[in-house]
TrEMBL record:
<feature type="transmembrane region" description="Helical">
    <location>
        <begin position="395"/>
        <end position="416"/>
    </location>
</feature>
<dbReference type="InterPro" id="IPR057106">
    <property type="entry name" value="NXPE4_C"/>
</dbReference>
<keyword id="KW-0333">Golgi apparatus</keyword>
<feature type="transmembrane region" description="Helical">
    <location>
        <begin position="446"/>
        <end position="466"/>
    </location>
</feature>
<feature type="transmembrane region" description="Helical">
    <location>
        <begin position="507"/>
        <end position="528"/>
    </location>
</feature>
<dbReference type="GO" id="GO:0047186">
    <property type="term" value="F:N-acetylneuraminate 9-O-acetyltransferase activity"/>
</dbReference>
<feature type="transmembrane region" description="Helical">
    <location>
        <begin position="659"/>
        <end position="680"/>
    </location>
</feature>
<dbReference type="Pfam" id="PF24536">
    <property type="entry name" value="NXPE4_C"/>
</dbReference>
<feature type="domain" description="NXPE C-terminal">
    <location>
        <begin position="22"/>
        <end position="91"/>
    </location>
</feature>
<feature type="transmembrane region" description="Helical">
    <location>
        <begin position="273"/>
        <end position="291"/>
    </location>
</feature>
<keyword id="KW-0808">Transferase</keyword>
<dbReference type="GO" id="GO:0005975">
    <property type="term" value="P:carbohydrate metabolic process"/>
</dbReference>
<keyword id="KW-1133">Transmembrane helix</keyword>
<feature type="domain" description="Cas1p 10 TM acyl transferase">
    <location>
        <begin position="254"/>
        <end position="734"/>
    </location>
</feature>
<keyword id="KW-0012">Acyltransferase</keyword>
<keyword id="KW-0325">Glycoprotein</keyword>
<keyword id="KW-0812">Transmembrane</keyword>
Length: 756
C-alpha cells in the first residue's frame, strides 16, 4: 500500500490486455468521449513542447477533443489548435532539443504576468543524439541543460500540471541510415539523466514534475509495428493521450470506471452515523456477552467437598435473548460492511478494467456445468418447478451471470441477449412463485408482505447507507420489489379470488382471467407512455428511490426491458395449477408429464423453440433493435426450458444440489458482486492479489461467496426479529421503520444540500 495517489501507477506501470487495451497497475482507466474531454478541459490552455514524438502525442490528444483534426501543417514548426465552443487552446511548440531556446520559452511562462498553461507536456532527446552523432559530449550537455530547466519546471508545477515525457525505445532494425546512431542504449542514458535530475531540488515538495514513463512500456510492446522505427504506431499514441487525459480529468469529472488519480470520496453524514451505529452495536454485544459469561460462572455446577457429589445450580443458564441475537447480527454485519467499504470506497485494494475474450467466458461456464452435473441428487417431490428445481435454476443462472459480469461479456452481443433471458427468467419465477403462494394459500396479510419486502430490501438499504449509493443503483431489487407489490395488488384488491373460492364455482376463474387482462392492459399502457411512467415515479418520496443521476430514465429502461415476463409467469402458474387440479398432469416419480405421444411432441417443439431463439439471439446485429423485441419473445426460451426440464420423468426427479446451494443465496450473490467481487460499482474487477489473476479470482471469489452466505443468514435471523407474526407488535415495528426512513430522507436532504 503506497497511499491514496494512484497517479504514480498510471504514469509509470501497466500491461496490455490483448493487443490494444492498456491496463494500468492497480487502477482503472476511463475511455473519454469527445464531450467529456471538452467538459473537463473547458477554458483550459495546454502546451506541448518538444520534438516530433511530442508532436505525435499532441495530435492524438487534440483528436480526443475533435476527432476530425488532420495531421497537417509545418512538421518542424509551431502548431496551434483551438476549440472555440469550449474555449480550449492547445499549442504544440517545436523545440526538438533541450537547450537555451527551450529554457527561454519555459522561463517566459514563469515570469509572464498573463496566465500560464494549465497543462505542460515536454520532452526531447533523439534530436540531440542524431545531430551530435550519439557523442558523450552531447549527453553531458543534455545533463547541463536539463539541470538548468528543472528548477523552472518545478516552479511551474506549483500552479500547473507539468509532465516530462521520457524517450521511447526505437526499433533499431528498420531505422534509416541518418538515424542509426539513435540506439536504445543511448536513449536509456538520456532517460536516466532526466529522471535523476528532475525534482532533485523538491523531493519533499508536493509540487513536482510528473515523469511520464509509461510511454516507454507501451513502446516496448508496439514499436515493432512502427513505420520508421522511431515514431509509435497510432494505437500506442492514442493510449498515451488517453492516459494523459485520465491523469488530469479523473479528479475533475470523477468517472466511475476511472479510479486512477481519484481521491477517496469523503465520508458522508449518513456513513458516519452508520459507523457509529455499528460501533455501538459491537460495544453493546460485548457488554451483554460479558454479563452472560459472568452469570454462567456464578451458576456453574460445583463439587460438594463433603461427599464429592456435584451440586446443580438453582438457576439455569440463560438462553440467548432477542437483544443479544440482534446485536450479534449487527456486529457481523458491521464487520462485513467494513470489508465492503475497504474494497470499493477506500483506495486500499487495487482495481482493474475488464477485458473480454471468448475463453474467459465459456471455459468457466463449462467448468461449473460439469460441477453441477456431478452433484446430482433425487428431489423430495416430483412436481413441476418444485423447490429444489427452482433453487437449482436460480443457482446456475446466477453463476452464469456472475461469470458474464467478471469477464466483461456484455461487449459480445449474442452473450448479452442470452443473459437478458436469464434476468427475465428470474422475474418469471417472481411472477410464478408469488402468484402460486397467494392463489393456493389465500394469505394477503401484512406479515407476509413485510417478510418478503424485508428479505428483498434489507441488504440493499444497508449498502445504500454504507456505500453512498442510490436505491435504483441496485436495479434488480427495486424491480422485483415493485413487481411483488403489483402482483399483491392485482390479487388482493376486491374481489379476492383464490383457489379455494374458485374450486366451488368456475365463474371465479374467469374473474381472475379478467384481472390478469386488466394487469396486461396496465403494463401495455405504461410501456408506451413514458411520460405517465415518469410522472408516477417522479413524485417525492418515490423519486428518491427510483432516480439515478437526477432522472428516472434508467428505471424506465430497466422496467420496460422485461415488462411482460412477470405477467407470463403469473399466467403460467394459473394454467399449471388449473391443469394440476384437474389431474391432467402425471407428476409421479419417473413418469412423463403427459402421455407418451403428447410428451414427445411437446419436447420436440420445446427443443426447436429453444434453439430457434438462440439462433435469433446469436444473429443480433443491433442491441437497441433486439432489446425492443426481447420483452415479447424472451418467454419462448423460458417456457421451452421449463418443458425440457420437466416433461421427462427422470429429469424432473433429479436436481443439482451444487446449483441449488447457490440458488438459495442468489439474491445476495447478485447484490454483493457490485462491491466485493467486481469493483468501481461493477465497472472493474477487485484485485486482492496483484500479479496473479487466477489466484486473485479464487481468493476473492471464496470470500465473496462466504460473505453472501453469511449475509443471507443474517437477513433470515433479523427477519424473524424485525418482522414478528404478532400484529400489534408488527404495527409498532412498522411505525419504527417509518421513523427510520423519514430520518434517512431528512439526512439525505441535508447531505444533498451540503453537496450543492
Amino acid at each position: 500500500f503506497k497511499g491514496d495517489d494512484t497517479c504514480e501507477y498510471l504514469l509509470s506501470s501497466g500491461r496490455f490486455l490483448g493487443d490494444k487495451v492498456w491496463q494500468p497497475h492497480s487502477c482503472m482507466m476511463h475511455k473519454y468521449k469527445n464531450s467529456e474531454a471538452k467538459n473537463c478541459l473547458i477554458d483550459k490552455h495546454i502546451a506541448f513542447i518538444g520534438d516530433s514524438r511530442i508532436r505525435q502525442l499532441f495530435y492524438s490528444f487534440i483528436k480526443l477533443i475533435n476527432p476530425q483534426v488532420k495531421e497537417e501543417g509545418n512538421k518542424h514548426g509551431n502548431i496551434p489548435f483551438e476549440d472555440k465552443s469550449a474555449s480550449i487552446r492547445v499549442d504544440f511548440l517545436w523545440y526538438p532539443e533541450v537547450n537555451g531556446s527551450m529554457r527561454q520559452r519555459i522561463k517566459s511562462w514563469t515570469e509572464a504576468a498573463t496566465a500560464k498553461p494549465h497543462i505542460i507536456v515536454a520532452g526531447a532527446a533523439t534530436w540531440s543524439i542524431k545531430i551530435h552523432n550519439g557523442s558523450n559530449e552531447a549527453l553531458t550537455q543534455y545533463k547541463i541543460n536539463i539541470t538548468s530547466i528543472a528548477p523552472l519546471l518545478e516552479k511551474l508545477a506549483k500552479s500547473s500540471d507539468v509532465y516530462w515525457v521520457l524517450q521511447d525505445p526505437v526499433y533499431e532494425d528498420i531505422l534509416s541510415e541518418s538515424r542509426k546512431m539513435i540506439t536504445n542504449e543511448k536513449i536509456d542514458a538520456y532517460n536516466e539523466a532526466a529522471v535523476r535530475i528532475l525534482n532533485s531540488s523538491s523531493r519533499n515538495s508536493k509540487a513536482k514534475v510528473k515523469v511520464f514513463s509509461v510511454s516507454k512500456l507501451i513502446a516496448q510492446e508496439t514499436i515493432m509495428k512502427s513505420s520508421d522505427g522511431l515514431h509509435l504506431p497510432e494505437s500506442s499514441r492514442e493510449t498515451n493521450a488517453m492516459i494523459l487525459m485520465n491523469v488530469y480529468c479523473n479528479k475533475i469529472l470523477k468517472p466511475i470506471d476511472g479510479s486512477c488519480c481519484q481521491p477517496r470520496p469523503p465520508l458522508t453524514l449518513i456513513q458516519k452515523l452508520a459507523f457509529c451505529f455499528f460501533t455501538l452495536s459491537f460495544i453493546g454485544y460485548l457488554i451483554i456477552n460479558l454479563i452472560h459469561r459472568n452469570n454462567y460462572r456464578k451458576n456453574k455446577p460445583c463439587t460438594d467437598l463433603e461427599n464429592g457429589e456435584e451440586k446443580k445450580p438453582a438457576i439455569s443458564t440463560p438462553t440467548t435473548s432477542t437483544l443479544e441475537m440482534l446485536l450479534h447480527s449487527f456486529c457481523k454485519l458491521g464487520l462485513i460492511m467494513t470489508y465492503f467499504y475497504l474494497c470499493d470506497r477506500a483506495n486500499l485494494f487495487m482495481k482493474e478494467n475488464k477485458f473480454y475474450t471468448h475463453s474467459s467466458f465459456f471455459i468457466p461456464i463449462i467448468y461449473i456445468l460439469v460441477l453441477g452435473v456431478f452433484y446430482t441428487e433425487n428431489t423430495k417431490e416430483t412436481k413441476v418447478l418444485n423447490r429444489e428445481q427452482t433453487d437449482e435454476w436460480k443457482g446456475w443462472m446466477q453463476l452464469v451471470i456472475l461469470i458474464y459480469h467478471i469477464s466483461g461479456a456484455s461487449t459480445f452481443l449474442p452473450v448479452y441477449m442470452h443473459i437478458r433471458v436469464l434476468v427475465a427468467a428470474y422475474l418469471f419465477q417472481t411472477g410464478y412463485g408469488h402468484f402460486s403462494y397467494f392463489w393456493i394459500k389465500g394469505d394477503f396479510g401484512v406479515y407476509r408482505v413485510c417478510q418478503v419486502l424485508f428479505r428483498l430490501n434489507f441488504l440493499v438499504v444497508v449498502l445504500c447507507i454504507v456505500m453512498d449509493r442510490p436505491y435504483q443503483f441496485y436495479y434488480f431489487v427495486p424491480l422485483v420489489t415493485v413487481w411483488f407489490m403489483i402482483i399483491y395488488a392485482t390479487l388482493a384488491i376486491w374481489p379476492q379470488i383464490v383457489q379455494k373460492k374458485a374450486n366451488g364455482n368456475c365463474f371465479w376463474h374467469f374473474g381472475l382471467l379478467l384481472k390478469l387482462i386488466c394487469l396486461l392492459a396496465f403494463i401495455f399502457f405504461l410501456s408506451y407512455s413514458q411520460g405517465a411512467f415518469e410522472k408516477i415515479f417522479s413524485f417525492w418520496p418515490l423519486s428518491k428511490c427510483f432516480e439515478l443521476n437526477g432522472n428516472v430514465y434508467e428505471w424506465w429502461f430497466r422496467w420496460k426491458l422485461d415488462r411482460y415476463v412477470v405477467f407470463h409467469g403469473m399466467l403460467f402458474a394459473f394454467i399449471y395449477l388449473a391443469l394440476q387440479k384437474r389431474q391432467v398432469l402425471s407428476e409421479g416419480k419417473g413418469d412423463p408429464l403427459f402421455s407418451t405421444r403428447v410428451s414427445n411432441a411437446l419436447l420436440f417443439i420445446s427443443v426447436a423453440s429453444f434453439l430457434t431463439y438462440s439462433v435469433w439471439a446469436s444473429s443480433c446485429k443491433n442491441k437497441t433493435d433486439c432489446n425492443e423485441l426481447h420483452p415479447s419473445v424472451s418467454v419462448v426460451q423460458i417456457l421451452a426450458f421449463i418443458l425440457i426440464r420437466n416433461i421427462p420423468g427422470y429429469v424432473r426427479s433429479v436436481y443439482s444440489s451444487f446449483f441449488a446451494w447457490f440458488g438459495k443465496i442468489s439474491l445476495e450473490l447478485f447484490i454483493c458482486q457490485y462491491h466485493i467481487w467486481l469493483a468501481a460499482d461493477t465497472k472493474g474487477i477487485l484485485v486482492l492479489i496483484p500479479g496473479y489473476p487466477m489466484l486473485n479470482v479464487m481468493v476473492s471469489t471464496f470470500i465473496f461467496v462466504c460473505v453472501a452466505h453469511e449475509i443471507s443468514q443474517i437477513t433470515n435471523d433479523l427477519a424473524q426479529i424485525v418482522v414478528p407474526k404478532d400484529n400489534p407488535t408488527l404495527l409498532k415495528r412498522l411505525l419504527c421503520m417509518a421513523g427510520f426512513f423519514s430520518g434517512l430522507l431528512l439526512f439525505s436532504a441535508i447531505q444533498d444540500q451540503s453537496r450543492h
